[in-house]
Design goal:
The chain has 141 residues and is α+β, with helices and mostly antiparallel strands. It is built from 3 helices and 7 strands, in the order H-E-E-E-E-H-E-E-E-H. The protein is globular.
Amino acid sequence: MIQDQRQQEVGFGIALRAAILAEGKILLLLRSRPSKGETGYWELPGGRMNLGECYEEAVKREVYEETGLKISVVKPLTVYDSKRDKDTQVIGIIFLCALDASNPKVQLSSEHLDSMWVSLEDLGTIKVIPGLSREAQLWEL
């Protein structure tokens, strides 16, 4: 909570996302934020990095909070810049991640309504957050 307030005061944050690859598919989560008009979009698991946290800890924490899955960070895939409004900027980093267990069962947090595993080829046919399909085309998996 205090962390979010500090980021809002500064107007800057770092967002980390996980492209969890398993059997040729990545995990997407369906957003549930009607107050922000963001319901209905699929996204990669992840969130903001906390002050003092290393990127690997942050990605693992966010994925576990949102899905109950334990992962390993493999490598960074891409960096993006998101200007949410005139006073807020977020630098995002998407990491390729691997599951720490086989046959994982996703346990969703209240932030999401559903989950699905999708191939990169099918990503363009799904209502994903703006820019994700374009970014995914650049990944070398």
